[in-house]
């Protein structure tokens, strides 16, 4: 990676926000994020709070890439996005989809801890009903199933015509086995955690364990690194969010805009899962798409959503530790 800016240069403008969410998503109802300004503009460092420093290092590299290095030229000026449906009850689906105007594709969370397959089926059925036969429905299990449970679930969900099943199982060998077992159902397998949390993000593609790969700019070390990775996989790519504020979402949009091919709608509509944001015009989908361009936080919103002082201190300490790890791994 490129030289890392001094810690003081990053810390000088750093702010920490806590954005309230509309519904619980991946176990949280408030999203904390650190924002700071580099020569290219504002950028975001927001590894989930339970991630250790090692995992957070790639997120900091991603934040620095977007703040300190010119982004690659876009080849499109808007990016189509999907609605993201948390693990809500089926009768709440219509209200969730209303927050994603014009989106023809929906990603539905399934295999949530404590929920049953019957609840997943009911939720996916409600999404298919709402989108109609032309809509595209994908599901994301976040590695919540073993191979047998995944096979049963994909069998039960396939009648709703799935675009793909994202990270049904945790490991690459499990994904490979499931992919063979469900080949007759014609439901492609997408890899997410097997890309962004792996030591080798290309291993899942090389093992032939996925048909599609999901990439996220911040967790994978930034726009330039992801473009390099995706060039090498040869698989179709879906750019998705890391549940970022509109600052980080704009980074994802910029990555998606630079992809030579973009066959799938991107999972970047997640500003609609927040009740507030740091920019005056949050990056929420309009007519199913997001515009390409940088976002600047509004000072009043940085104040309104400022995290409590103890949380600011926690993030500054985390930044210091993670910066030290990153600086030690970078060329002088
Ligand atoms: O892909 C989408 O529709 C939205 C982004 C999204 O689902 C996620 C963002 C951040 C963390 C993850 O748990 C989750 C995912 O697994 O893809
Ligand atoms: Mg996922």
TrEMBL record:
It is an enzyme of class 4 (lyase). Keywords: Lyase, Magnesium, Menaquinone biosynthesis, Metal-binding. PROSITE patterns: MR_MLE_2. GO terms for biological process: amino acid catabolic process; menaquinone biosynthetic process. Pfam families: Enolase_like_N, MR_MLE_C. It comes from the Bacteria. The active site is at residues 109, 216. Mg(2+) binds at residues 140, 166, 192. Pathway: Quinol/quinone metabolism; 1,4-dihydroxy-2-naphthoate biosynthesis; 1,4-dihydroxy-2-naphthoate from chorismate: step 4/7; Quinol/quinone metabolism; menaquinone biosynthesis. Residues 86-185 form the Mandelate racemase/muconate lactonizing enzyme C-terminal domain. Its EC number is 4.2.1.113. GO terms for molecular function: magnesium ion binding; O-succinylbenzoate synthase activity. InterPro entries: Enolase-like_C_sf, Enolase_C-like, Mandel_Rmase/mucon_lact_enz_CS, Mandelate_racemase_C, OSB_synthase_MenC1. Belongs to the mandelate racemase/muconate lactonizing enzyme family. MenC type 1 subfamily. NCBIfam families: PRK02901.1. This is o-succinylbenzoate synthase. It comes from Agromyces archimandritae.
């Amino acid at each position: 990676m490129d030289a890392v800016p001094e810690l003081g240069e990053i810390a000088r403008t750093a702010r920490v926000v806590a954005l309230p969410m509309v519904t619980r998503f991946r176990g949280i109802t408030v999203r904390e994020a650190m924002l700071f300004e580099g020569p290219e503009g504002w950028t975001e460092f927001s590894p989930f709070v339970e991630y250790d420093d090692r995992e957070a290092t790639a997120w900091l590299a991603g934040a620095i890439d977007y703040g300190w290095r010119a982004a690659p030229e876009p080849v499109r000026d808007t990016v189509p996005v999907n609605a993201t449906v948390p693990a809500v009850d089926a009768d709440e689906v219509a209200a969730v989809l209303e927050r994603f105007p014009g989106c023809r594709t929906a990603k539905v969370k399934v295999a949530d801890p404590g929920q049953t397959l019957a609840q997943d089926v009911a939720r996916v059925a409600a999404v298919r009903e709402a989108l109609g036969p032309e809509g595209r429905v994908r599901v994301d299990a976040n590695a919540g199933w073993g191979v047998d449970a995944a096979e049963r679930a994909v069998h039960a969900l396939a009648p709703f015509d799935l675009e793909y099943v994202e990270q049904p199982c945790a490991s690459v060998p499990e994904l490979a086995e499931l992919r063979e077992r469900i080949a007759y159902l014609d439901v492609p397998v997408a890899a997410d955690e097997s890309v962004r949390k792996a030591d080798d993000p290309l291993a899942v593609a090389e093992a032939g364990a996925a048909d599609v790969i999901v990439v996220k700019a911040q967790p994978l070390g930034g726009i330039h690194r992801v473009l390099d990775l995706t060039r090498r996989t040869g698989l179709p790519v879906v750019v998705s969010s890391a549940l970022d504020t509109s600052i980080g979402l704009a980074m994802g949009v910029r990555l998606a805009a630079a992809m030579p091919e973009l066959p799938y709608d991107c999972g970047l509509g997640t500003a609609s899962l927040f009740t507030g944001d740091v920019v005056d015009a949050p990056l929420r989908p309009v007519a199913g798409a997001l515009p390409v361009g940088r976002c600047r936080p509004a000072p009043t919103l940085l104040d309104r959503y400022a995290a409590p002082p103890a949380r600011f201190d926690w993030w500054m300490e985390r930044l210091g530790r993670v910066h030290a790890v990153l600086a030690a791994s970078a060329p002088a």
